[in-house]
Amino acid sequence: MPRFHFSPRAPERTGDDRPAPSLWRYVWRMSGWHQVAACLMAVSVAALGIAPIELQRRIVDDAITQENYQLLTILASIYLAIIIVHGLIKLALRMYEGWLSESAIRYNRQHLSRLHADNQTGDEDEGNGRAVSIIGSEIEKLGGFVGDGLSQPVVNSGMLIFGLGYMISVEPVIGVIGLVALIPQVALVPVIQKRINALIEDRVNKMRSVSDELSELSPGAENRDRLTTINRGIDDIFDNRMRLFFLKFGMKALINFLNALAPICVLFVGGYLVLEGATSVGIIVAFISGFDRMSSPMRELLSYYRVAAQAAVQHKLIARWMH
């Protein structure tokens, strides 16, 4: 297994103790122009991910229907080549994103550990539990956003744009069905995510408080009241998580239902057009495959929206702690 010893922008980051003013400035500070390279790779992944839709249509309409064995072989070979190239570029992109994320996490942990050590008075443990929580787990969520903070939405939005653009250009009526299916999801997510963000911030604050209380435990009877406070905090964290699960999984269930409606509409409307002689079976096959391919990037985009919102909350809280 290779070892990655170098960091994306270590020389430029060293010495700057001020927190970045926003999440996106933080991402740029940690990775810089590497984000441009990652986004270019992401565009290639998106384009190659949609290319098989047209190949499926041509295989059905031009090769199978016409019984053209030579064309079938050529198209199948091109299909296989695209799948291999797409997989290799996607693997390289994931590794690149992972390297950027882990480099940011490593730098942040080293940097915040130094800041915390420099600010210790030597005669008290106040705030140690909070520092452990931030440097141990919170920074991992924030630093993990650096790697795919820009490239992943480029991949998924690119697949949606390329896919819908292709469908509308080939068969506008069916393409519009896919566009309409996306509208409720785009409108719904920000409303629910706003409530999820509030729960995330509340949970992080409660976790920090519990960590502080745990770090201040000492032998003696006075721990009884402190343990009561800790247990109450743990109960509050449990309630917070259950409310968050209800919102998160409820939103996913609704989105999955809306995604499942699109193929049914394609089969109904497309089947009618085939019976009327207005379109071909190959287009219907390709479009069903296309909607299936686009449901995944739509889910990824919605998941990304949640992760970005959580990273923004995390960044705000860590920046406040640094101040």
From TrEMBL:
The keyword ATP-binding applies. The chain crosses the membrane at residues 32-51, 71-93, 159-183, 253-273. It is found in: Cell membrane. It comes from the Bacteria. It is a multi-pass membrane protein. Gene3D superfamilies: ABC transporter type 1, transmembrane domain. GO terms for molecular function: ATP binding. Keywords: ATP-binding, Membrane, Nucleotide-binding, Transmembrane, Transmembrane helix. InterPro entries: ABC1_TM_dom (IPR011527), ABC1_TM_sf (IPR036640). Residues 36-310 form the ABC transmembrane type-1 domain. PROSITE patterns: ABC_TM1F. This is ABC transporter ATP-binding protein.
